[in-house]
Amino acid sequence: MAPGATDEAAHEQGGTPHYPLIKPAELDWTFAGPFGHYDLGQLQRGLKVYREVCSACHSMNLVSFRNLEGLGYSDEQVRSFAAEFQVEDGPNASGEMFMRPGIPSDRFPSPFPNPEAAAAANNGAHPPDFSLLAKARFATQGFPKFVFDIFTQYAEGGPDYIHALLTGYGQEPPAHITIQPGTHYNPYFMNGPALAMAQPIMDDQVEYTDGTPQTVDQYSRDVAAFMMWAAEPHLPERKATGMVVMVFLIGFAIMVGIVKRRVWADTPH
Ligand code: HEC
Where does the source fall among the domains of life (predicted)? Predict the structure, then answer.
């Protein structure tokens, strides 16, 4: 039975379907688990995908250009990258806002002047900001999965979801589902059967210079990893610290136990 089939059956019988209709697959991410790390090459490719495709609609207004030094770029590279963006500044002496090229302390701007304009240009739905999106989206897997997640340190639900969404277009909607005009069927979307974003990226759309395959699957992995980095750049350090703290606490608990036995050894019961 295909995943999600039960939901569809429930829907046909008049029940409420659960979204997403199909649960995202869990992928292998380099930053998964207690010893994970970000793959800088992958993050740089993800930035390229974001820059060339997604930034036409999605802002990232909590991330500054200078944060890109964390991806291994020099100050010089960050400066010329920032200057490619037009950023609103002002007001000037005559009280007007004006546009100027970006500098490293600017944030990734929105291509639209305000959320209403963004929605008007996108079938009524405004493209969400990317800064925290990888942490804000997480298709819950339910009990008992979330119990095991505590031990596997599973925190990649966001990137799994983004990858599934980007690779989930182009399927035939089931007969009983009506797709509203201006929306696109995607069984991985978590708020309904279809969303206002059309499939944003196709094979060979972005050029990779390091020989990585130029497929929708690969682009989706890279941009999802990049979005996770944007949302939580210090994820590996946080997990490593957690590991050290756990090891310390376990060691400390054993020591306290031994000391307690020593101290009370001569006291009769
Ligand atoms: C032409 C504009 C446009 C482009 C380009 C675009 N998007 Fe979107 N995106 C949208 C809109 C509009 C929405 C809101 C859809 C809705 O809520 O119905 C959206 C929503 C999303 C969501 C959130 C889905 C959710 O669960 O709410 C993700 C993730 C996303 N886009 C990823 C991407 C990625 C990654 C790229 C680049 C590969 C990209 N988008 C390129 C317009 C765009």
Answer: Bacteria
Domain range for 36:
17-59+110-233
CA of 231 to the centre of ligand 1 (A): 16
Place of tokens 């206002």: 196
Give the residue, by CA position, lying nearest to ligand 1 atom 19.
Answer: 127
**Residue 192 counted as domain residue:** yes
Query: How far is the centre of ligand 1, averaged over its atoms, from the C-alpha of 253 (Å)?
Result: 48
Kindly state whether residues 27 and 154 are assigned to the same domain: yes
The string of pLDDT tens digits covering residues 16-73 is: 778 899 999 999 999 998 888 999 999 999 999 999 999 999 999 999 999 999 999 9
As for how many domains the chain has, the answer is 2
**Angle between helix 40-52 and helix 216-231 axes, rounded to 10 deg:** 100
